[in-house]
Amino acid sequence: MDLFDAIARRASVRSFKPAQVSEADMEKILDAGRRAPSGKNIQPVSYVVIRSKETLKALSEAQVCIAEASAAIALAADPAASPYWLEDASAAAENMFLAIKALGYDSVWIEGTLKRIEDKAKALLGVPAGMRLIILLPIGKAAAEAAQKPKKPLSEIVHWEKW
Q1: pTM of the full predicted structure?
Q2: Would you identify the CATH topology of the domain 3-157?
Q3: Helices (DSSP H) in 45-150: which residue ranges?
């Protein structure tokens, strides 16, 4: 799928049906995250790939749909390594989110509800104490057709040269 098609078709999916996420596709998704911009190129973000149904079920305490996913990627960042850790993790997640869609899978960006169980999830995944487990991207196929929510028209949000 073309990048602009992936951007236009990307939707937050919270209900998955079983799908096999190949090793090659997972590596492409991870590489997309690795290639995201990083403040001063510090690259403070690391990834945990989760395929275990048991682990996905345990992480579903953050959001129920995680248990239905075929796999997930957790993004952890080191705040001590870079003042830009949150921006870097967000850029990596967006690259991965678009790669997931471009490869024919679906996902949802889980952050806020993950914060509630961050310590428990870090222990489950073996994330070191100093790291923040900030984003989780479940991966699978949408259980039903998913459409992107309406977005404001450019004419409402873009200003040329001045506000």
Answers
A1: 0.94
A2: NADH Oxidase (3.40.109)
A3: 53-59, 85-102, 112-115, 118-125
